[in-house]
């Protein structure tokens, strides 16, 4: 278990983190969601020892994380740290050796990652000659080469095309399936909804929601979505708080779903009727607005 417990951090008069706490189980792929400046990068930097926290702690396997315990972790910072004039394969193997791997093991792990991330054909290219997306793949390979026990990735999908997103997502899922706790931040909420086991939402340096997407959906405001075959406007006819979404009606605060159904049936044939399933983006907007 990877646990972040009651982290606090100030920069002068600015409170960056105010009691941030969450946990990630072994093998769990967790998305870290928040607007710019919400505290995601600060949290990740503290987890990796890049920043010192004012109070609180990071715990892995029941032990506070200190010093060289992080050498067995994989980190992908928001600001990339590659050597632009170094060959792709040489660079990945080099970082593996920095983590204590033998040259032979680092070379073997590099070959496997080049294949997984579809970079084999670019192995002998300078990093500076790669597209942004391929540079992102190399940066991920650098964070994975030493088979880390924990993965912390800050915006790993930034700037990637859909095919590159799929390649990287599969690689992260593969690592999580081996028992590694994985935390990554991203503004691509549809992607998080698709691949994450759990989601942590931060705003203003505080955790405001966490859990699986289904748990977050169950906590969200429940509303009915219905489509009625009628030319009449049912906004003032249906019981509850009614809004329009194209041709559909959304009903919140309905005293009784059957009462809504009866009112809709009186207006015309029902094309669809049921509780709405909010997207992660809608859940995010709702909890941040509270």
From TrEMBL:
<dbReference type="GO" id="GO:0016887">
    <property type="term" value="F:ATP hydrolysis activity"/>
</dbReference>
<dbReference type="GO" id="GO:0046677">
    <property type="term" value="P:response to antibiotic"/>
</dbReference>
<keyword id="KW-0813">Transport</keyword>
<dbReference type="Pfam" id="PF13732">
    <property type="entry name" value="DrrA1-3_C"/>
</dbReference>
<keyword id="KW-0046">Antibiotic resistance</keyword>
<dbReference type="InterPro" id="IPR027417">
    <property type="entry name" value="P-loop_NTPase"/>
</dbReference>
<dbReference type="InterPro" id="IPR003439">
    <property type="entry name" value="ABC_transporter-like_ATP-bd"/>
</dbReference>
<dbReference type="InterPro" id="IPR017871">
    <property type="entry name" value="ABC_transporter-like_CS"/>
</dbReference>
<dbReference type="InterPro" id="IPR003593">
    <property type="entry name" value="AAA+_ATPase"/>
</dbReference>
<dbReference type="InterPro" id="IPR025302">
    <property type="entry name" value="DrrA1/2-like_C"/>
</dbReference>
<keyword id="KW-0067">ATP-binding</keyword>
<dbReference type="InterPro" id="IPR050763">
    <property type="entry name" value="ABC_transporter_ATP-binding"/>
</dbReference>
<feature type="domain" description="ABC transporter">
    <location>
        <begin position="2"/>
        <end position="229"/>
    </location>
</feature>
<dbReference type="GO" id="GO:0005886">
    <property type="term" value="C:plasma membrane"/>
</dbReference>
<dbReference type="GO" id="GO:0005524">
    <property type="term" value="F:ATP binding"/>
</dbReference>
<dbReference type="Pfam" id="PF00005">
    <property type="entry name" value="ABC_tran"/>
</dbReference>
<comment type="similarity">
    <text>Belongs to the ABC transporter superfamily.</text>
</comment>
<keyword id="KW-0547">Nucleotide-binding</keyword>
<protein>
    <submittedName>
        <fullName>ATP-binding cassette domain-containing protein</fullName>
    </submittedName>
</protein>
